[in-house]
Design a protein that fits this description.
The chain is an alpha/beta fold. It is built from 18 helices and 13 strands. The two termini are about 25 Å apart.
């Protein structure tokens, strides 16, 4: 892609930093989120290993094939020819200077996890779909991230220009999703629906069977649909099992496959020494709310008409923005959720920063948040002491303002505004 037409990504700066420090960078993530396009910006040569003609030489003699190509070299969809990973390992063992190889893939495979434990030679980076900031072309290397601005706990950092979305627009954005093919082009709802249906068909038939040919793709699809309709929630295991007609062992295998394909994610429960009786179950997410809408046959209108689903789709949309930022963070940031066993306190997202510092976030489908919407954040602040850095009620209204000590109300669009 010509530089003039390339849409800047959050991944750009991080990929360049990693290439300046490591001989090989492995970029993983869901299909069709722009991994190859982004990687093309920093390499001199590209091999697409899903194309049989290009893959043939690497299957026959991967070491010789590597030596014949110009560097930096992009090996796109490396898992199609897994032998290439060993050849890259041998090449960098011989010459470990930075910036030699970029590998991209859409499957988090056991080979990737186990075959190369050589710390300092290959580093991994995960890319997700477009954030709204990326869609709008508002990505700047010097710009402080959203989480960093929450840490400052200053409403002035969230001043926004017009127009500012309202609730229906947020749901439209969620249902549209962050896949570049959809988000960057004017497409009819029917075209988007057909594209997303085809995307899911490929993942839940061809891609799944390539990893594990034994799986029943019909039951797997029903299980994924059940997760999609519960995205952003903590459904009872029995609810999902009954919907798909499977047992817990099969569900665990499906969960592993969905994670390997980067289409479903789980936000683990946060646990702290000062708090007892916390629920340990994870929150379930589809990694892009458009996939949840497609799998559940949902439209923006049907989501708006279901209060419970509305809240969970808004939650999924917000976490999609946060996940992409955290994936590109150079620090040790992790996203969690919190819920007490009796259900008295629940916090949608807890971001754990370096040194165990905590940011709490509540996601509310309201345009006029009040101190009552921040009561769980206030409880967390008072119970964990200095570990609590700041909290935010992310809402659908137009303005940012203080709700209490180190707790702000922040419009959702400030995540990219």
């Amino acid at each position: 892609m010509a530089p003039s037409t390339y849409r800047p990504r959050l991944a750009d700066a991080r990929l360049r930093r990693l290439m300046a420090e490591f001989p090989a960078v492995l970029v993983n993530g869901p299909r069709a989120v722009g991994k190859t396009t982004t990687a093309r910006q920093v390499v001199a040569d590209v091999v697409s290993l899903e194309q049989p003609a290009q893959a043939a030489a690497f299957r026959a003699d991967p070491d010789a094939a590597l030596r014949s190509r110009e560097e930096p070299l992009l090996l796109d969809e490396w898992q199609a020819v897994p032998e290439v990973l060993g050849a890259v390992r041998r090449a960098v063992d011989e010459d470990g200077h930075p910036g030699r190889f970029v590998l991209t893939g859409s499957v988090r495979s056991e080979l990737e996890r186990e075959a190369w434990p050589a710390t300092g030679r290959l580093v991994r980076m995960t890319m997700y779909g477009l954030t709204e900031g990326e869609v709008l072309g508002d990505v700047h290397a010097h710009q402080a991230g959203f989480l960093a601005r929450i840490v400052a706990a200053d409403p002035a950092l969230f001043a926004l220009s017009e127009p500012r979305p309202r609730l229906p627009k947020y749901i439209e954005l969620a249902v549209r999703g962050g896949f570049p093919e959809i988000a960057l082009h004017s497409r009819s709802p029917g075209w988007r629906s057909t594209w997303l249906d085809g995307y899911l068909d490929q993942l839940l038939t061809r891609d799944v069977l390539a990893i594990d040919p034994r799986r029943d793709t019909r039951r797997m699809r029903r299980y994924f649909e059940a997760i999609a309709l519960n995205t952003g929630g903590t459904p009872q295991e029995r609810t999902l099992l009954d919907a798909a007609g499977i047992n817990a062992r099969t569900a665990a295998a499906y969960d592993g496959l969905f994670a390997d394909l980067f289409i479903a994610d789980q936000l683990p429960a946060w646990a702290g020494n000062r708090l007892a009786r916390l629920v340990r179950g994870a929150k379930r997410y589809v990694v892009d709310p458009a996939l949840a809408a497609s799998a559940g046959a949902l439209t923006a209108r049907s989501v708006m008409e279901d209060g419970e689903l509305l809240g969970r789709m808004l939650d999924t949309f917000a976490v999609t923005q946060l996940r992409a930022e955290v994936a590109m963070s150079s620090g040790r940031r992790r996203l969690h959720h919190l819920r007490t066993k009796e259900g008295r306190h629940e916090i949608d997202v807890i971001a754990e920063l370096d040194g165990g510092r905590l940011l709490g976030m509540e996601i509310k489908a309201t345009a006029s948040p009040s101190a009552a919407d921040a009561r769980h954040l206030t409880w967390l602040r008072d119970h964990v002491g200095d570990r609590f850095v700041a909290g935010a009620v992310l809402h659908t209204g137009p303005d940012a303002f203080a709700l209490g000590d180190r707790i702000l109300a922040i419009p959702l669009c400030a995540m990219w505004g």
